[in-house]
Write a structure and sequence with these properties.
15 helices
């Protein structure tokens, strides 16, 4: 067996291993309550002996848990819609702020450009735990605590989209832009007619990466939102009781679907974005 075939075989085996939790999750969402309790008895009930077991295929498939969650749990839809508003609001803000900033860094020279871009990179590397106190004080001063805007606005000012889009905008030939200037195109027209179309792979990769991050956002909502009616879906899942494991499986499947669809739709552009982000200055 050639080395290439061995590599493909190993990749296939790893893919199966990584898919198993998703398969188990989907199987659990189709199990009845009694079957779930039977499989997870050592976890659910004190004094039960043995180990939890699981089945890849339910013995008696049922959609009862889907009905209970989708028809009898209005709070689920409120938090699902909160996640949608957070993710789309952040992405819209990042496009409005990140695209012009990245274009300016990539195509223009100005005093302090490298220093300012270095500061951008340092801010990108700071984790939320380091900025949490300062963010909290700032949002409190602006009256944005316990509001979705308190999550959307700081995330919309993230420096990561600027860093990623900068790589794509730098790849646009300067001769092309000079030719457009000679034909009378203004600087804003250059961005709209050349920057956006030629940088579309980077823009799509930013949207995909951003959606995957902010759809599953936990720390910021947990720190800044006290009103549970504003919580996103990522905070709804841990609140489901252990004895409602069937509903928890269904909620996890539904929460997984938008992220999986976004990744599937933009995986080609995502690969380009990862390559661009790994390129050194």
């Amino acid at each position: 067996m050639s080395g290439k075939n061995i590599g493909l075989l190993l990749c296939g085996l790893l893919g199966i291993v990584f898919l198993l939790p998703v398969c188990f999750l989907a199987a659990g969402s189709l199990m009845g309550r009694r079957e779930v309790e039977e499989c997870l008895a050592p976890i659910l009930w004190e004094g039960s002996e043995g180990y939890a077991q699981w089945r890849l295929f339910p013995q008696y498939p049922t959609l009862r848990s889907y009905v209970q969650l989708l028809l009898d749990s209005p709070g689920f839809f409120v938090m699902f819609w909160n996640s949608v508003k957070l993710a789309l609001g952040v992405l819209a803000g990042q496009m409005l702020l990140g695209i012009p900033a990245a274009w300016g860094f990539a195509r223009y020279e100005f005093p302090g450009k490298r220093l300012l871009f270095t500061i951008y990179m340092l801010l990108m590397m700071l984790p939320f735990q380091v900025r949490m106190l300062s963010d909290y004080l700032l949002l409190d001063g602006l009256g944005l605590l316990d509001s979705l805007w308190g999550i959307i606005l700081p995330a919309a000012c993230s420096t990561f989209p600027v860093f990623l889009l900068y790589r794509f905008f730098c790849g646009i030939p300067e001769a092309l832009l000079e030719a457009a200037r000679l034909d009378g195109a203004g600087e804003i027209a250059l961005l709209f007619y050349f920057g956006l179309p030629l940088g579309s792979p980077g823009i799509i990769s930013v949207l995909v990466l951003g959606f995957l991050e902010y759809w599953n956002l936990i720390e910021q909502p947990l720190a800044f939102l006290k009103d549970q009616s504003l919580w996103p879906l990522a905070l709804f899942l841990p609140e489901i009781g252990v004895k409602e494991a069937g509903i928890a499986f269904v909620a996890s499947v539904i929460a997984l679907l938008p992220a999986a669809l976004a990744f599937w739709a933009g995986q080609d552009y995502l690969e380009q974005g990862i390559i661009a982000s790994a390129t050194k200055e």
